[in-house]
TrEMBL record:
GO cellular component terms given for this protein: cytoplasm; plasma membrane
Superkingdom: Eukaryota
UniProt similarity note: Belongs to the arrestin family.
Arrestin C-terminal-like domain boundaries: 170-278
Organism: Mastacembelus armatus
GO biological process: nervous system development; protein transport
Matching Pfam families: Arrestin_C (PF02752), Arrestin_N (PF00339)
Name listed for the protein in its UniProt record: Arrestin domain-containing protein 3-like
Amino acid sequence: MTIKHFSIEYDAINSKNTFTNGDTINGRIIVEVSKQTRIQSLVLIATGKARVCWQEQYGDNHHVYWADEKYYSVQHHILREARQDGTEVIAKGRHIFPFSFKIPDRKLPSSFKSSVGKIVHKFRAELKRSLKLTKKAKAHFTFVSKADMDIPGLMDPQYGCKDKAIKLFGSGTISMDVYTKKMGYEQGEALQIILKISNHSTRSVKPKFILYEKRSFFAQGHRKLWTNEILKQKTEAVAPSTSETVTKVITIPRDLPPSILNCAIIKMEYRLKVNYTM
């Protein structure tokens, strides 16, 4: 085999090996050949794209829903038409071809992967030789989008309410009013929740606070939904025929991936649910 090794490497710029909008990635394409070799072209392609695909069954029929979305595709010609015959000759041994790529400084969704959909940022290298199959190599890099502070309502106070009549194992009504200072939070930040609960029932109720992840996938006019509970906390019970104001502080886990709100086919968000048990 003439080409013994063909790969892509790049340098990390932080301890997590992540990149964001406007960052420059420096790397190299490594080619090792067993003898002098003529190369027509060596191209590096940086791409960012999303894809979803899932299957649903209706009786005996199966239907596959899928969709793609592309964000960028940038080519760098590392070797091209260096000689009159359109080829470049490289000697036997190991060769390193450095490259530099600046991630577009615009709104892009973060890297994401699940069984239904994925958002991929990667490099692909293609080495072409006359009358030979194109040799390919790839390397993914983890892109984390900068926080988008322009989302409407992100810093606005939030409010929700719920009233429920008790009919099983008791009677009366329970009403809850929930307040938070804003809608958007970062990893590690404290989320303060103020709950005003009026228990006009014959049962004690124990408020509970649930932070959960919600993923939505969209294709061909259909949606697939997936939720996952991240954490759940409770407070002391509220006695029958009493009203209380409860303040609860939840720390957003530092290892949570960022929300994805800027992709047309994948949406990942975090929600707070306030409920109670008896």
